[in-house]
TrEMBL record, chain A:
The keyword Transmembrane applies. Residues 111-300 form the ABC transmembrane type-1 domain. This is ABC transporter permease. InterPro entries: BP-dependent_transpt_permease, MetI-like, MetI-like_sf, OppC_N. Pfam families: BPD_transp_1 (PF00528), OppC_N (PF12911). The chain crosses the membrane at residues 49-70, 113-140, 160-186, 228-255, 275-299. Keywords: Cell membrane, Membrane, Transmembrane, Transmembrane helix, Transport. The lineage of its organism: Bacteria, Pseudomonadati, Pseudomonadota, Alphaproteobacteria, Hyphomicrobiales. Belongs to the binding-protein-dependent transport system permease family. It is a multi-pass membrane protein. It is found in: Cell membrane.
Automatic annotation (TrEMBL), chain B:
It comes from the Bacteria. It comes from Methylobacterium oryzae. This is Dipeptide ABC transporter ATP-binding protein DppD. Its main location: membrane. SMART domains: AAA.
TrEMBL record, chain C:
Its EC number is 7.4.2.10. GO terms for molecular function: ATP binding. PANTHER family: GLUTATHIONE IMPORT ATP-BINDING PROTEIN GSIA (PTHR43776:SF15), TRANSPORT ATP-BINDING PROTEIN (PTHR43776). Pfam families: ABC_tran (PF00005), oligo_HPY (PF08352). Belongs to the ABC transporter superfamily. Glutathione importer (TC 3.A.1.5.11) family. It comes from Methylobacterium oryzae. This is Glutathione import ATP-binding protein GsiA. Keywords: ATP-binding, Cell inner membrane, Cell membrane, Hydrolase, Membrane, Nucleotide-binding, Repeat, Translocase, Transport. It catalyses: glutathione(out) + ATP + H2O = glutathione(in) + ADP + phosphate + H(+). Residues 29-270 form the ABC transporter domain. Part of the ABC transporter complex GsiABCD involved in glutathione import. Responsible for energy coupling to the transport system. The complex is composed of two ATP-binding proteins (GsiA), two transmembrane proteins (GsiC and GsiD) and a solute-binding protein (GsiB).
């Protein structure tokens, strides 16, 4: 004979449930479950710094998407007569650059490329790095040693140097700078993914899953993946700021975007000659890079603390 | 009781973190040279009460109300500077996890001598001598050699003794102990409990020990205060509380212990349900929803504190019935809705 | 009929009959290599030759202090770590070999861990965690979920309110109930409870102990109950096994072992339990210092450096686990006739 445990049989043996195990529970204290991401969202919304940073990011993304239609002037059209106007000029609100092009229009359009070459390498590296790191962390043993020691080689170089060297070798251009930046970030993300996965692998619930007879692949997919992707993603968002600065740096050095395309790093480079004539305008692209990368950093900080949910 | 001021006196102490009232009107006084145990389950506010005596909370995030006097000082009136001297000098504390009390990069001996030198102006040699004497006092074997150990080189029980030595370094009058033996093995736990008792006797130390283990409390404490949902529900001598309990919660705690089972394999007497949500407390007695004696009045009004005998105070409307029920033996309990803890 | 495909029901799967131990462990050894400062290689003798039987339908309590090897034993019994040597017979079949591969063994033997939070996946609802086992064993998803809900109700958690909850949304006692429900999801015969109630408050502990008693009776379970709390072990166990530094020092019926211990270590453990009588507090500790490290355990009887009865012979001879009373076996030379210990009884037990 067996003991099928179904809702029906429980209704029958409900009386077996010890009388002292039960009580009048305050129904009011019962809150419906939000789920993990629901909780994270709830806590994120209550974090003013993260929300401010999120607003900045959202604004920049909107501007980047809409810029071809909303720039007040043609960002490519210059005028030899109206070069280096000051901020607050009647026509050029944020002044004009060394070729007399409208700064505000160029900054708006420039956000597209800057965001693109800042975010794309991180996204690609997130996928590749996570795969390497999770594999190394979950399989452990020799696989881990070989993968992680190889990754360590990349850590021997400072990331700026590595990016410049790779870009230099591949040649200038948007595609090549994305490739080289991806190569910079893959080891970093893989390292974090490996340590997160190694930590998760030792948790009791993984042991419990093994005891239930699940295969390694099932455990990886069902039990491990959901728990490691979040922390790795948070780390990746914190890399976006670095990526934007590195990308701007490459453009500044002439290894990234080529003129006349507006990109913040490149604009910083070309305006550098005007720094004594009009320092405020020359600094504007730098201010944009600074503000956006800080916003990404603060947002990722907020996300990290919102995800720290314990009992 | 002597006419001198008590070692610790809490008067209507209330501590809140945000909307959560963790400690809700605690009155407590500890005579000099006495040992008091605060017992209760997780979330009862016992640790928070203990920490309030040293003001160990971030100022902005907590709200403390009521009077706190310890070692003759008004703790809430102390300036930041005075508080630093007060901690360790007048009142010091030991924790469940000694590794957190020590800095891993310095030897234990150096940390104790530095603690002494921070509070007193004596020579380094004299401080080292005092540290050595402390190590002998807490019975660490080969103390001279152990002073030069790093924290991780010691075993759990020895670290606990070293932490007690550190806490006693500046000759405090009051020692606060937060679950000092919870992480220890049984054979080590009893040694530490006996050591605390010995220190109380030999040094005239006043001790407040927080624990969830009634057995540990009985081993060290002269008096026991039982906390539930931020309130003290019963306080008295160890004898009064353990052998003659008058509060249904204390009775429940005593009854639910495995050694109290009537016979092997018989069911244990339990306290049904789980503690209340401190963020929205029900009106009346916080224990009423789980109490086998609860009546309409209990759910409406917080019971006043009744003095059963000299020093034995109980916050319950139905102390006589509770006491009678305890003496009559285990009682069956019936309730309706399943919300187990 | 069982819900799990091709897993016969727990009562029909009995092979050896009631006299055959459900689990029979002999010569179990696990050593962990460690590298001390200076590069010297050493081994932790976590479990160093352990033999015992678990009888059908009984609760075997395992007690001991940190370093005694009880948690390592638990992991070895579940195959979470590999044993260095020794055999395990499950109902007469060698576990980990052809007749009884780990996969089939684990359908019949499950475990409840101490840390109720760490043993539940924080991103899974309670219901998903319980249903996971049946699902990977081929139960259709809907049926597995239904089964999970049934088990939730059985452990006292109303499915409507708890099924969709996440581990951080429920209390420690509720989480441990979920873990118990999960361990039952595969209809095991043997459940290993590793300090399963140790982290709970006393009043909650009592509720969970009652639940364990009920489930045992209802599903015909056999328990291995690991704990450091002698009172709890005395309450729940039929037999108790005391471990010290990777070896069994005493095993027998729990009333006998805990009321009339034959091993000096068991005696010391019992004397260390705080008294609950304010008029009769413990006066002196029987043992000084901490339990030693299982790296480099003492020669002979491992307890002899701390033992009040120790004589020269104890440092030389490793005491075998010998019968002192019916069903009661002790590894102590002072209890063993002809061992050379001066306190040893004159003749063998006449039984």
């Amino acid at each position: 004979m067996t003991v099928p445990v179904t809702a029906a049989s429980v209704a029958l043996d409900g009386g077996v449930l010890a009388a002292e195990d039960v009580t009048h529970g305050p129904e009011a204290a019962f809150v419906p479950s939000r789920g993990f991401w629901g909780h994270v969202g709830h806590r994120l919304v209550r974090d003013p710094v993260a929300m401010g940073a999120g607003a900045v990011i959202l604004a920049v993304v909107l501007i980047a998407i809409l810029s071809p239609w909303i720039t007040p002037m043609d960002p490519y059209k210059g005028s030899m007569l109206r070069r280096l106007k000051h901020v607050g000029d009647a026509t050029y609100w944020l002044g004009s650059d060394e070729l007399g092009r409208d700064m505000i229009s160029r900054l708006m359009l420039g956000s597209r490329l800057s965001l693109f070459i800042g975010v794309t390498p991180v996204l690609i590296a997130f996928v590749i790095g996570s795969a390497i790191g999770i594999l190394a962390g979950y399989v452990g043993g020799w696989t881990n040693t070989i993968l992680m020691r190889t990754i360590d080689v990349f850590f021997a170089f400072p990331s700026v140097l590595l990016a410049i060297a790779l870009s230099g070798a591949l040649g200038a251009g948007i595609f090549n700078s994305i490739v080289s930046l991806t190569c910079v970030f893959v080891p970093q993300i893989a390292r974090v993914a490996e340590s997160v996965t190694t930590g998760i692998r030792k948790r009791d619930y993984i042991d419990a899953a093994k005891l239930s007879g699940a295969s390694a692949l099932t455990i990886m997919r069902v039990q491990v993946l959901g728990n490691v992707v979040g922390p790795i993603f948070v780390y990746a968002t914190s890399l976006i700021s670095v990526s934007m600065i590195l990308a701007s740096g490459l453009s500044f050095l002439g290894l990234g975007v080529r003129p006349p395309e507006p990109e913040w790093g490149l604009m910083l480079n070309t305006l550098r000659t005007a720094i004594y004539v009009n320092p405020v305008v020359a600094a504007l692209p730098g201010v944009c890079i600074f503000v956006v990368s800080i916003a990404f950093n603060l947002f990722s900080d907020g996300l990290r603390s919102a995800m720290e949910i314990r009992q | 009781m002597s006419g001198s001021e008590p070692a610790v006196a809490l008067e209507n102490l209330r501590v809140a973190f945000g909307k959560v009232q963790v400690v809700d009107g605690v009155d407590l006084s500890l005579e000099r040279g006495q040992a008091l145990a605060l017992i209760g389950e997780s979330g009862s506010g016992k640790s928070v009460t203990l920490r309030a005596i040293l003001r160990l909370f971030p100022e902005g995030r907590s709200r403390i109300e009521g009077g706190i006097r310890a070692a003759g000082k008004d703790v809430r009136a102390l300036t930041r500077r005075q508080l630093a001297d007060f901690r360790g000098g007048d009142v010091s504390m030991i924790f469940q996890e000694p590794l957190l009390a020590f800095d891993p990069v310095y030897t234990v001996g150096r940390q104790i001598t530095e603690a002494i030198l921070r509070h007193e102006t004596i020579s380094k040699d004299a401080a080292r001598k005092r540290a050595l004497a402390l190590f002998e006092r807490v019975r660490i074997p080969s103390p001279e050699r152990r002073l030069d150990n790093y924290p991780h080189e010691m075993s759990g029980g020895m670290r606990q003794r070293a932490m007690i030595a550190l806490a006693l370094a500046c000759r405090p009058q009051v020692l606060l102990a937060d679950e000092p033996t919870t992480a220890l093995d049984a054979t080590v736990q009893i040694q530490v409990l006996l050591l605390l008792r010995e220190l109380q006797r030999d040094l005239g130390l006043s001790i407040v020990i927080v624990t969830h283990d009634l057995g540990a409390a009985v081993e060290v404490a002269d008096r026991i205060a039982v906390m539930y949902a931020g309130k003290i529900v019963e306080t008295g001598t160890a004898h009064q509380v353990v052998l003659n309990p008058h509060h249904p919660y204390t009775i429940g705690l005593l009854r639910s212990r495995a050694e109290g089972a009537l016979a092997k394999g018989s069911r244990l007497q339990t306290i049904p349900g789980s503690p209340p949500d401190l963020a929205n407390r029900p009106p009346g007695c916080p224990f009423a929803p789980r109490c086998f004696l609860a009546e309409e009045r209990c759910r409406r009004e917080m019971p006043p504190v009744a003095e059963i005998a000299a020093g034995h105070r109980v916050a319950c409307w139905r102390t006589d019935e509770a006491s009678a029920a305890y003496r009559a033996g285990p009682t069956p309990v019936r309730a309706a809705e399943p919300v187990p803890a | 009929m069982s819900v799990i495909p091709d897993a016969p029901d727990p009562f029909a799967r009995d092979r050896g009959g009631p006299a055959q131990p459900l689990l029979s462990v002999s010569g179990l050894v696990k050593h962990f290599p460690v590298r001390k400062a200076g590069g010297k290689k050493q081994v932790v003798r976590a479990v160093d030759g352990v033999d015992f039987d678990v009888l059908k339908g009984e609760t075997l309590g395992i007690v001991g202090e940190s370093g005694c090897g009880k948690s390592t034993t638990a992991k070895l019994l579940m195959g979470l770590i590999e044993r260095d040597s020794g055999t395990m017979l499950y109902d007469g079949q060698p576990v980990g070999e052809r007749a009884m591969p780990w996969r089939s063994y684990r359908r019949q033997a499950q475990m409840v861990f101490q840390d109720s939070y760490a043993s539940l996946n924080p991103r899974m609802t309670v219901e998903q965690s319980i249903a996971f086992g049946p699902k990977v064993n081929g139960v259709p998803a809907r049926e597995a979920v239904e089964r999970a809900r049934g088990l939730l109700a059985r452990v006292g958690l109303e499915p409507k309110r708890f099924a969709g909850r996440y581990p951080h949304e429920i209390s420690g006692g509720q989480r441990q109930r979920v873990n118990i429900a999960r361990s039952l999801a595969l209809e095991p015969r043997l459940v290993l409870l590793d300090e399963a109630v140790s982290a709970l408050d006393k009043s909650v502990e009592a509720q969970v102990l009652n639940l364990l008693l009920d489930l045992k009776a209802e599903f015909g379970l056999t328990y291995i109950f690991i704990s450091h709390d002698l009172n709890v072990v005395r309450f729940i166990s039929d037999r108790v096994m005391v471990m010290y530094l990777g070896r069994v020092s005493e095993i027998g019926p729990s009333d006998t072992v805990l009321d009339a211990p034959a091993h000096p270590y068991t005696e010391a453990l019992l004397a260390s339990m705080p008294s609950l009588d304010p008029d009769n507090r413990t006066q002196a500790a029987l043992l000084a210092g901490d339990p030693p490290n299982p790296i480099d355990p003492p020669s002979g009887c491992r307890f002899h450096p701390r033992c009040a009865l120790a004589e020269d012979v104890c440092g030389r001879t490793e005491p075998p686990l010998d019968t002192v009373r019916p069903l009661h076996r002790v590894a102590c030379l002072a209890r063993q006739p002809g061992s050379g210990h001066s306190a040893a009884p004159a003749s063998a037990l006449a039984a």
